[in-house]
Batch of 3 targets.
Target 1
Amino acid sequence: MVQGASSGRSGSSQPVSQGVGEPAPLKHDSDAAIQMSARKEQRQAASCNLRCAFTCGGNDKDNHSDPGEDSTGGFEVQVNLPKCLRSLLVQDWELVIRGKKLCDLPAKVSIDAILSEYAIFPMNCHTRDKKYAVCGLVDVLKEYFNAILSTQLLYDFERPQYDELVVSYPSSQMCELYGGVHLLCLFQQLGPMLTCTSLDDSSLMVLLSHLEDFLEYLARDLYLLFIDAKDYVLASEEHLKVV
């Protein structure tokens, strides 16, 4: 669970916009079943990568947990978002809910690009274990984002946009289309997800430590997220008719 401004997001499906490549023709309703199956596989892969990255290596952090404990049962995981990052979510809420605007998608700088840049940040390459853990974290965040975006990370107002992106860019992952503000939304959902993880407490503490490092990295330089109010556009009349 994330402490800070509540996004009020839940989810479903739906987006619109331009960016990468040519839009594809509208697909049949049967694609929904394929998409659901793909999301299930992504969630399973994310869980597998999560366990591997933080139990098979990458533990170059101090262990703050009781060695005798081996599960997360009994306490709620906290992922604390720095105030300066929470303020970006407040701005997003004001622009989307009050201003009836949408992020211009595909994003100029995608979540995939932001995370890939972090993976090669010099401080993350000092040791093999650190590099391994950060790469594991990056992969897990991408997979979690792709898996839960439509159901947990979008305002109702954003859902038609998501649906349009799905049919317009069928070969793209959502982390390649969405940008920094939706990455922050993911962090708001990580706490409850990690509370239910099968990671033992020792591995979970390592993971949370690396998450904290990443949030501090973003908080030190907000430009790394490429979030700008100028990158929001007024929703079209067509969009407003379906929300």
Target 2
Amino acid sequence: MAAAEAAAPGGGGCPPAGGGSVPVLFCFSVFARPSSVPHGAGYELLIQKFLSLYGDQIDMHRKFVVQLFAEEWSQYIDLPKGFLVSERCKLRLVPLQIQMTTLGNLTPSSTVFFCCDMQERFRPAIKYFGDIISVGQRLLQGARLLGIPVIVTEQYPKGLGNTVQEIDLTGAKLVLPKTKFSMVLPEVEAALAEIPGVRSVVLFGVETHVCIQQTALELIGRGLEVHIVADATSSRSMMDRMFALEIWRRLLISSVSHEKEN
């Protein structure tokens, strides 16, 4: 997975209902590939599209910024904050001259646990939900024993319910509602800033290819190590889950290779 620029624009990933598709030209390096996205697509969906088109060619140790071709300037500009696709446009993914943080050993004093959207309404839809609840329980028990801070999010809890009762949130540093894919909310960033020397995030929950993936992208873009717990994350579709975990496996292999070369 490629990391997004640390100052990535907002703009939710969930397009409004209706509106059809909008043609977009996605450019990376010397390549330009036409595709389409739903009307109203935001930053997160655009990143997903870049990954689907160019995932095998992206250097996973680099950070990237998304730029939009502006007719009035006749050149590319950084994607405006809150940008939503409403008409035909041309975008490019530009690598920055900053190396990615590679994965290292976990130490309790520099680690935070992220529990993502383990909610009741997902129970009948998510594959092996009971199994990931069981592993999630053990992870949180371990966090309490080791004094590791825990941050929990719930996706639109008014409609999707709260975190399942089996998951004991006693002592959690934050339990927050959200309406975007990523867990990296302003309150979460503020909480991370309060933890001295935080370096690593252990991430688990649902869904692997959406909220987990987008959270990982944003955390990596902020220079943090991200460890996804494979047996504590899942999706509605096993294909989606396996594809997302395969991307992460390639990232780990690439990280190890990069460290050996240096």
Target 3
Amino acid sequence: MVVGLRAIGAKGPGWLRRGPWAPLAASFCSQGPVGAGRPEPGPRPTSVRQRDGIRSIVLSNPKKRNALSLAMLKSLQSDILHEAESQDLKVIIISAEGPVFSSGHDLKELTDEQGPQYHAEVFQICSEVMMLIQNHPVPVIAMVNGLATAAGCQLVASCDIAVASDKSSFATPGVNIGLFCSTPGVALGRAVPRKVALEMLFTGEPISAQEALLHGLLSRVVPEEQLEEETMRIARKIASLSRPVVSLGKAAFYKQLHQDLRKAYHLASQTMVDNVALPDGQEGIKAFIQKRKPVWSH
């Protein structure tokens, strides 16, 4: 939604250092609705690698500022859905090549030439991707090094954890081109205080990484040269823990979040009972009592 905005002081597409990760297959099968999760023919706009329980999904279309085109959204959806229930998957990192994390929707897909049915598909798939992140059984981390605007900012706000470089910035500037960021506002309004979200939505003005951290859009802000190291530190810590326990806890956290206090405690108490009953729950308790490291099932 912000094609034409300039990112300040960003490096080129080679900033993301590639390690010896095992690449996943080029096409994945989705359990979603017909058409969902299936990238369009041609080069995939995302790349995926997985190692030691950590899946790295990279938005890989820097020439188009990693715009969340329909093809990009379907590719991202497919990458997130791929073997989501595999016990080998512990955590997902979403990052991007180039100076822009994502500029939001591809405006060329939102002209009259495409028509309302196509437009509806774009926003439906985008909403499904954002909800998929919250409903996914493993934590999803955004690693941001640059500009994230409109639906790109929505993607960051939708992730469970977000780590950004100190040069990053965030905006919902659709109002400036006559297209209010209504769908980004759903995720943004659940990540930052209402008045902060509304100022961003009404003015379209960007906020810095430090402001985003202050308001709760980000978990951490680090110097650019420490971004990958810090993100991987968090991911490795999560990957070292019990997947069943983390998955149970993530689902319970989001489920109780919008309940009244009594209902929230009721749900959380039942979750604690279920957690104690897990094999890894018992293993962790016994390991603590026996003063040894736990051996998780997964």
